[in-house]
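User: Protein folding is very new to me. Would you mind checking the protein record under this note? It all follows right here:
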Amino acid sequence: MASDYIEHKLALLPDMPGCYLMKNINGKIIYVGKAKNLKNRVRSYFKSSHDGKTARLVSEIADFEYIVVSSDKEAFLLEITLIQKHRPYFNIKLKQGNGGYPYIKITNERDPQIKIVNTLVKDGGFYFGPYPNVYAADETVNFLQKVYPLRRCNGFQNRPCLYYHMGQCLGACFKVVPEETYAKQIKRIKSFLNGNVAHAKQMLTARMEKAAANMEYERAAEIRDLIKYIEITVEKQKIISNDNTPRDIFNYYMDKGWLSIQVFFIRQSRLMKREKRLFPIIDDPEEEMVSFISQFYKQKNQILPKEILVPKSLPTDVISHVVEDVPVRTPQRGQKRDLLEMAGKNAQVVLEEKFRLLELDESKTTGAMKELTDAMGIAPGHKIEAFDHSHIQGADLVSAMVVFVDGQPNKNLYRKYKLKTVDHADEAASTKEVIRRRYTRLLKEHAEMPDLILMDGGVIQMNAVKDVLVNELGLDIPVGGMVKNTHHQTADLLYGDNDTPLQLDPKSQGFYLLQRIQDEVHRFAITYHHKVHTKNSLSSRLDSISGVGPKTRNKLLRKFGSLKKISNASVEDIRKLGVPETVAQTIKFSLSKIDEERKVTNYQDKKLTH
């Protein structure tokens, strides 16, 4: 039931279009919505019964505000802006940054190159894709560089580069390549990437036959492999449209408060990639879909297609307006309609599978989170960030952070820290550094703060966290300390001004969640520390070998990754890295001695053990 304060505000709502912002007890915006009629929409949250995610939202609303606009379209545009600004917990949120797919780019310069990129820039270059993964894009670029070369060298150097001798560079390294030569080659590349592979296949077949006739069998075999690439990688993809228009297809299926979305990327007349998303939702599915599509194209790594297809339930004019006037259509018949229906069917299958596999047990996830916040006497929250440190006798100091959202680990948000200002075992100093680095960055990025911070440790760590948050950063975030018993098992949670044990019930779901968080952050910190320690140990051993400096050491580490692999490599393999033969032989000899010493040590250890 709504409080008197909420009731009074509801009575003042206007019968006008606009956006509303729901806030929790801390004044944090937890949901942004739009409405054709603010009075009817906002009142419905408090005057109707709800379940699922909407019920959870309503239980956390302590206040709201609204912004009046002149039209429904204007409300939609404002809603998108507000969602991107505040990133509310209960709104659909897409991952930010370079989380998309790779593209192939022909650069816009005097001597153009072809390369793989993740970020799209308006610099006059030609972009093709998206590709299913980096491997697929790399295979395609590798093929094009062999068949339709542009420039592979760094530019003029007064002599032909290695790639020119291999037939994979037009020679900008030692001569002026006519612009029309590049233009012809780019035309062929664009034709190939748009699905026209016949010319490439005919040309390669002629080259292969000529090489075979001249008894250049290795060359003929190389060309045969290129033809096989076309047949296996390109031609095997079924052509599903009669034109080369790059288009994206969106469809959805909704059931039990969950929205399942399918996106088909049609490129080069083929279904190049399918993307699926699942969200619990609050608003109407149509409005959530429009919000999703608009956010989808505001990602850094998302290129606009020439056409977007959507089901008839979505407002094509509104979507087109927010995606830079790309045509948005609903096909009525034929192949495009079949593709749209296929996307919808896939969305349904994915959601039904989700329901079969997912145990929506609230007591083990959000219920456990609420047990913790209730025990601490703080507002209900969703996101916990937990920290732990790791070192060996004060060496190789590292820290790690794990993130749990509604009782579940979100490994995409985990972070690792090499300590920079601490060179010995000092829990307070280590804690201050990592907390300072983490939350200074979130403040600079205007990013979402956690609802609760947990430290693996007791009073020393907790006071260090509070000191940085309150006295340096001016943040008011609850801080708890996860303490262990003499058997190194989770014992309790410290909280409050006096760091008091809360005496959680060991059989409760809240205690079980605390145990999982403490175990997970400890595991993550130990794993990272082991990796850093191993790498540092490996570096020091290589540094001890005569003739091996920092450059040679880094080359060896990048190429081989471990002492064992370097030891197993031949002198010739090491020389290929640009290492002189005498140094390569010294490396082999020194590592063989280290191997012998390790074997003797292991043998002596076994004798002592037995």
